[in-house]
Amino acid sequence: MPRMAQGHRLRSGRFSETGRIYSITIICWQRNSLFSTLPQGRCAVQAMQGTSWQANTLCFVVMPDHVHWLLQLRDDARLSDVVQKMKSLACKRWRRLCGTNRPLWQRGFHDRALRIDDDVVAAARYIIANPLRAGLVRSVRDYSLWDAVWI
């Protein structure tokens, strides 16, 4: 009998707390570079903006094969609903742009709730520096697919 995926274990104990800040990572299908052009990456950016009634985006970076997103939940929003909405909006835009019906995202997402004593700005700097660590650019200023409320 084939082994079942263990993704459900990631969701057990997941709790959405209004006002809580979460660091989210969402991976592209089979870790392919599906955001390799600026217009493709903008699909994810616009999708995050499309969830503004559910969450405040504090910062993000869209990498070629994944997205990092630091957000704060608004009143009565559920984290899984916010991420699902973002993934759905991005997928619709991306498929329209690319003229394909292939998958954009892997199932699920990784989240980390920041504690009250965590340095949010330091977490944002770490997220924004992803293109530097990946060797995509020499300066964050040279990378177009990121933003932060502090800038």
Give an overview in words:
The protein is α+β, with helices and mostly antiparallel strands and 151 residues long. It has a single domain, classed as Alpha-Beta Plaits (2-Layer Sandwich), CATH 3.30.70. The protein has helices spanning 8-11, 38-49, 79-98, 120-128, 130-133; strands at residues 21-27, 55-62, 66-73, 110-113, 146-148. Strands 4-1-3-2-5 form a 5-stranded antiparallel β-sheet, with helices on both faces. It is globular. 31% of the residues are buried. Residues 1-5 and 7-11 have low confidence and may be disordered.
Tags for this model:
single chain, 151 residues, alpha+beta, Alpha-Beta Plaits
Question: What is the secondary structure topology, with strand pairs?
Answer:
Blueprint: H1 8-11, E1 21-27, H2 38-49, E2 55-62, E3 66-73, H3 79-98, E4 110-113, H4 120-128, H5 130-133, E5 146-148
Antiparallel strand pairs: 1-3, 1-4, 2-3, 2-5
Helix pairs in contact: 2-3
Oligomerization status of the protein chains: single chain
Strand content range: 15-25%
Describe the largest sheet.
5 strands, antiparallel
Distance between the termini: 53 Å
InterPro entries: RAYT_transposase, Transposase_17, Transposase_17_sf
Protein name: Transposase
Domain Transposase IS200-like: 17-130
Pfam families: Y1_Tnp
